[in-house]
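Re: export button greyed out
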Amino acid sequence: MENNGTNKIFLRFFFVYVFFLLMGILAVGGIISVQFLSKDKVTAEDIYKEQVLLPLRGSILASDGSPLAVSTPVFELRWDSKVVPDSIFSRDVDSLALCLNRIFRDKSKSAWRSELVSARRSGNRYKLIGSRKVDFGELEEIRSFPIFRLGQFTGGLIVNRDSERINPYGHLASRTVGYLNADGEGTGIEYTYDYRLRGEKGVQTVHRMLGNEWIPVNGAPARPAVDGVDIRTTIDVRIQEAAETELRAQIAMSDVFEGGTAVIMDVKTGAIRGIANMYKRRDGSFDESYNYAVAHATEPGSTLKLAAMIAMIEDGHISLDTPVDGGNGEWYYGGIKITDTHRGGYGKMTALEAFEKSSNIAFAKMITESYGDDPAAYISRLHNMKLVEKLNLDIEGEGYAYILSPDDAAWSNSSLASLGYGYALTLTPMHILTFYNAVANGGRMMRPYFIEDFERDGISTEKFGPSVVSGSICSRSTLNAVRTALRGVVTDGTARICDDERYAIAGKTGTARVAINGRYEDENGYRQYQASFAGYFPADDPKYSCIVVLYTGKTKGNFYGATWAAPVFKRIADKIYASHPEWNPPLYADGLIPPDNPSIASGLAGRNGMPVEYMPMNSRPHTKGKGWVRIDTGHGSGTPVVSDIEIDRGTVPDVSEMGLKDALYLLENEGYRVVFSGTGRVSSQSPAAGTALGRGGLITLTLK
Amino acid sequence: MRKRIIENVLGGQILAKSSFTRQWRFILYLFALVILYISIHFGIRNTMQRMTRNEETLRNLRSEYMGKYTRLLYTGKRGEIEKLLEESSIDIKAPATPPTRVKMKED
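Workaround output, generated via the alternate export path:
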């Protein structure tokens, strides 16, 4: 009985054993079959792969950091119309059309409906939804729409991920920002600085997980992608917009215009705050496909008279009061006829009036009298003022500036006269602006630049900023004279349209005829004009310089800088003025006394901030080369008196009317100890000036 | 001899041997280690998967932010605002003069 029971147990155990054995054999067989016999082999590539990590392209930013061009993931939407069941489609197509209309806003609800219906009727399995790609936020919303919310296999919505360059401000500054196409061709900053913007690709090994997700393999060699740098430009979005709007509006006023440009520069640094270029296309609309400002080197016309004027004053040939005869409006020199626009001529006038009225004859006469025996001296003066210097701009395509010289084969008897009023040389608008900016900037010529720095996450990694082309293009006194003349053009001359009592503009108009096949007027009497205005504002403390140039096609009409370019300049300047409250003096609340500009000031001459800088530009005395001076403005008499302050070792110097910084510097250098009280300028000192006091003596100052 | 060993292993007698019973704590410890190893491994995988997904979310959120931000920038352009004002026939013009600064106390 017992034996029988044991046998039974053993038998059961045997069956279990055999079962497990068979299962084991099956499992091993399965492995062998999958590994060696099966045709779809699972290889290492199915589980592991090298993944290329794409870097994010750097942004191009405006001067305040807002993006002009930025890369961001976007999504293209397609629709497979055949997978949606009939009942669902006919029930929900109306509400879907309404939702799509709300997102895209470019088509009515009924237009969307008929588009969806016709796609379905024609059996389109890859219908493009919407006229543009959408961002992630919109995608999430679209995924919740009727029909689409059923997923790809019932709703039919197919989402393709893409990366796109977005220009948030649309076409604003599009020439400067530029573009880059798939072949690597392009323009502007996108093209010139592509090697910094695009970043570096990275690579990593990834491993496939359940659910088809790929995650990086721990410990496998990997190189992260390096994102491109952001490039911060000098463009001020508001000024840029003003330049584009006003230039476009002016050009639209006449069919004759072929194009135009407007550039605004920051006086102190040479930073380009706005640059607009309009080029007329065949269909009559305008785009920015040609960079006039940088590339278009032409004969500038009367805007060059500024350089001629500086040269003649600097070389001592004329002053603003030198008399010159404009005659009856026609003058022959070297075999060519020179004319003035004013019928009957300007007659006798001063050099200043000749500049204000922009008399070609007067300038031809003055330049030939000044340099007739040595034209090369004038040419080299123009070169010394860096007028035709290569500017090495941040964006490519700089036009070639050139001055005809007596060694050239093309030099003729009339060339010197032509050089007096802006012919026989070529300059780009950017060159002219750079020159006018130098005059506005106290003679210091700044290189125009577009790029402030390269940044990562808002932190500057490489700085560019301003650079000086020439420390001083002419002497201070010459500069003061021509600045008076430039202001005179606006108050009494050709650009009275720019005169505004709220703030002062200074500048010069220019009207040049463009040579067509070597002639300024063709056989049918057609001419081509280049109307320009270059200047700066506010005239007594310049902040911005600006040039506007308009180019006409062939015409029989007259297109003057004064009537066509100057108004654009004025309207741009008005918009800039309206956003600068600090250009006007503040109002003082009750009980506050406005600070009084000192009528007497003392200090170290020739240093920034002291003391002549307190005085209006036109009445600033000449203090160059002087040491410690005392300046008395003459209490309204208009003639400042400059006297030297005597400094003798062992005697207390006179520091009255000095700022504390100057007083301390002077006294402590003389070896005295100083205590002071109050703020403002030194009103009294003890011991008094002229007292003998040894080194280490104590001087008490009271400031008021 | 060999048969004996196979019998011992298959029959389970080996587990009753004294050398085994003496070491059971250590064997248990080894098993605990193996389980710990496996669970940590899975934990890491889960974290990495979450990281990948979060990176994706981050990219998408950035896309959403940039989309909204750029639309706002465009709408905020002076020209666009003037156009909108005109469309809604609101008579507000851009200022022609700058605001006047008022000084309340000496600096």
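The domain at 43-66+168-233 of chain A is CATH 3.90.1310.10 (Penicillin-binding protein 2a (Domain 2)). The button fix ships in the next patch.
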